[in-house]
Amino acid sequence: MRQIEIKTEDQISDVLEWALAGKHRLAIAGAGTKIGIGRPVEADAAVRLEGLSGVELYEPAELVMQAQAGTRLTEIRDILGREGQKLAFDPPDYGPLLGHPAGLGTIGGIFCCNLSGAARVKAGAARDHLLGVQGFTGRGQAFKTGSRVMKNVTGYDLCKLVAGSYGTLTIASRMTFKVLPRPEKTRTVLVFGVGEAEAVAAMRDALSSEHEVCAAAYLPEGVARRSGVSYLQSENRSVVALRIEGPGPSAEFRCVAIRGLMAAYGETEELHGQNSGTLWRFVGDVGAFVQDDPGVVWKVSVPPAGAPAYLKRLREHVQDMEYYLDWGGGLIWIALPNHTATGGEYAIRQSLNGEGHATLIRGSESLRASIAPFQPQNPVLARISEKIREGFDPHRILNPGRMYAFGGEG
Amino acid sequence: MKMPEPDQEVLAKRDYLVRRLKEIVRNPEGVIDRETDLRAFECDGLSAYRQLPMIAVLPETKEEVAEILKFCAREKVNVVPRGAGTGLSGGALPLADGVLLGLGKFNRILEVDYENRCAVCQPGVTNLAITDAVKADGFYYAPDPSSQIACTIGGNIAENSGGVHCLKYGLTTNNVLGVEMVTMEGEIVRLGGKHLDAEGYDLLGILTGSEGLLGVITEVTVRLLRSPEHISAQLIGFPTSEQAGDCVGRIIAEGIIPAGMEMMDRPAIHAAEEFCHAGYPLDVEALLIVELDGPEVEITYLNDRIGEIAKACGATVIRQSRTEEERMTFWAGRKAAFPAVGRISPDYMCMDGTIPRSQLPHVLARMNELSEHYGLRVANVFHAGDGNLHPLILFDANVPGELERCEQFGADILKLCVEVGGVLTGEHGVGIEKRDLMGEMFSEEDLKQQQRLKCAFDPEGRLNPGKVFPVLHRCAELGRMHVHHGQLPFPDIPRF
């Protein structure tokens, strides 16, 4: 397969012209750390955008940044850090989970896959922070949506569509996004030895409190032990983790208040600074399942209160599994052994009972080719989605089949 | 404002359509065809434009909605969905040959689910009613457009409504979890639910803010938030609007995101003060209301810091609310700014551009020049935190030519917003009002691409035609694509 390294926007236009003229299919990626998500793409050329890099606009007082799509997240974090700001949705790094080194992911990649970390439960998803996109459609036409301002309802909000479209609608060349101040202080309250159902209730209480808890996760004992945070490793117990942020006095006040609220559920402790950061990266980056034996990993989104019932249903089908909860229970990460037939697809999806969706995040190429990594849609939504794709990319040259086998593509 | 030519064939079969619609809608008063009764629907909040609908229908169930849409699709009749009709851009303006689909009867809150921190509502429930239903339990629904007492949640989704607190809490799109929607073909589908994120393309994300062009919403699931422990506001006056703008920027740059940050210019301050005696200082050029929420310890801490920043920026008045009553008084003037301006002028037109905040002094100066040029006064209220500007242009519709001058002035303001890197509309929507200005912001191809999205949902273009897009293309024409075979300078090897 031809490898095409994009360095300028004009080159994207050229590639598309070439591809359209010869009906060549393109596999599009930033640094390629997430190409393992979704159906394997059969293409004639692999297009990489990591060379299209650089922050082009940053106005801290306006909370806005614009960067070329291939800019590494690590670079963006550094620049934001110098002004005491951050990306509020905790962009995760799935690199190590998917067999790549850490720190290679690009800003275009994170938005085009709409991936958010633990803060999603309060700060919103990646898509909520995407203000504008420029790029090219599969028609080879320059494409622009959104702007650099935070409040904008001019025309359809196509940023939402680009976010999570896995490169099947556009080759994005430039992203404009909202940034936020880094909180003065961050504290993590830990609640030890809580069972699954109680943990979900504890997270509900914390997230429903006035203390603006901004992340809530539950790590069963086996997962907690792998966290790399000494407190958790030595406890040999499950743990509920609740993150609190804010101005110094406020974070401290809230931390005390949350510990008081959680005392009814179990023994509490608090993590500061570096330990807190390590723990939440572990949660967001799915550190628990970065192992030597790369098992199948599913990401399941459910109504948060429904997590225990979901797990109960799932256990009726699958015995050998590991899991942990994020987003207050609304996100269930599940790891199954490699030999699980069809990656456990049937059990994982059947257990949803029609509420929520499941995405295969890690699985072998043959597994990803044989099952539906993305949750199948009902026929009406599938028809609309396919027509949307057709509107952007009538010849289906952009990441064909990556999300769905629309009309037999891919 | 030119609307699409009414379809004479449709108008000719009006009686037949009425008869059939009466068979679909069970409530005998659910189909309205008498001119006097249709008057109630002739405009939305943009009352300068009026049009009687051909027929209005007020269904009560999603099945009725589906049947109506299916029927209209078959009969080639256009449909305009409508919530409470409080929109400010003419998005719910009826069509002479169209069925107006009112969703006012969908007014029940179906479920409050604290376990999942959400509420399930019918689309005709008012924005404020959601908060009212959960307030006693310490919860609220965050987006608070100023029309929240009357506007409906369905309309909020159609317009992606904002409010004064979206700096911290986001717009409608950030607070909606799911909807049930009926397509123009009459199919009932669910997007999202009580869980987060979409399984495929984010259809909920594009439905939000689509101004009634993609589908008709019949149920909504919104996120509920816990009400903050304390709320407090500061009133800060400045000798110049540059200083006020600078202060806003510095507050944010120092890492403080207030719950709300509003700004008024001199004409707005004076009109508001005259109207409701909020105690605003009259010797300042710009006034900020900075609201904080959270635990008392946080408010005290941040209020002090904001006070210091304000002083450093040259504030001449700094007042902090000591009681809830005083806080409400601070807000009373700002919230009454529109009616207050309405009192000092026979008519006014409210604009809604967003600008990069650093451009504020430049934009205000240019606006003053335009004001002189057109001979029309302008008062400004401004969601300062997020750069959303609401210039109110004062005019008298009874003076021949003033409405046209006002429209021209408004268009110039919006063009100015785009010119400085901003947008045509921050929260009111395009509707018919800004439809013909879309070309200022988007290329022809960008607009075509947006309309291709419309084609995916509504290929015949039956839902709310004439809104948002200046030129209506047929979907077949939009789908075409010409590839220049053989004209490439590099037929074999792409140059990378």
Automatic annotation (TrEMBL), chain A:
Keyword Heme belongs to the record: no
InterPro entries: FAD-bd_PCMH, FAD-bd_PCMH-like_sf, FAD-bd_PCMH_sub2, FAD-linked_Oxase-like_C, Oxid_FAD_bind_N
Keywords associated with the record: FAD, Flavoprotein
Gene3D superfamilies in the cross-refs: 3.30.465.10
SUPFAM superfamilies xrefs: FAD-binding/transporter-associated domain-like, FAD-linked oxidases, C-terminal domain
Residue span(s) of domain FAD-binding PCMH-type: 1-182
Name listed for the protein in its UniProt record: 2-hydroxy-acid oxidase
Organism encoding this protein: Sneathiella chinensis
